[in-house]
Fold:
Amino acid sequence: MLESLVCPVTHAPLAYDAAHQELVSKAAGLAFPIRGGIPIMLVDEARQLD
Structure:
């Protein structure tokens, strides 16, 4: 399913970070959380990457 998800900001592919349970958009510098197995693709819920 990861192949069908893209960053809502840049529409770039996402990388799965299993350790943090996040989908990472390097293009946007954001990490979207996965809660209960569901990716939360809201910019307001994403954290900024360092």
